[in-house]
Amino acid sequence: MTRPLLVLATHDDHLARRWHALGEHWPIVRANRFDALPAGARLALIDAELPDLPPLGDPRWPRLAASLRMVFASSRPNDGEGLAAIEAGCSGYCHAFASLEQLTQVVDVVESGELWVGRAILNRLLRAVDHASKAPAAPGWAAGLTEREQEVAQRAALGESNADIAAALEITERTVKSHLSAVFEKMGVADRLQLALRVHGIK
């Protein structure tokens, strides 16, 4: 299977040299400016310090996200910026100087169509989804799930941790993980955010 071109968008030569090692897994090209992102690119690792980077609230981001899966990489990551990046349409948020192994994993996850964010950002997204939803749950979302799987799924969709779910339902964390794996498979979702969107009928 041919890997898509990975755009390394950074003006920092030191960072570019670190990221260049990703060329072992993807064909790569470098862009020194945001407005120099190649047309037709489908995957990009974007340095938060690019000099011409538009604010994350700029409408260019969601337009770009329609065709380009983006990882927003910051040398000073924080949850507020990460949440803004995801809301702008980026599919991943990570430390710009993460290890090659972790960067490879991040880009691989994003390329496969999933989301890469930290636990705190994910929980904030889940709470936002729950707040935005007027109904407690979308009808028919739980078709095929056991009663226990439904309980675990509803709590996970609200942003509860495995430990919190285990305590509330008086089961082990290992059992929670097992139920979540079954829920993800039966519902055809890849992560808790997708689960929350499905439960609330948003997608």
From TrEMBL:
Domain annotation HTH luxR-type: ranges: 138-203
Pfam family, one: GerE
Keyword tags: DNA-binding
InterPro entries according to UniProt: CheY-like_superfamily, Sig_transdc_resp-reg_C-effctor, Tscrpt_reg_LuxR_C, WalR-like
Name under which the protein is recorded: Response regulator transcription factor
Species the sequence originates in: Niveibacterium microcysteis
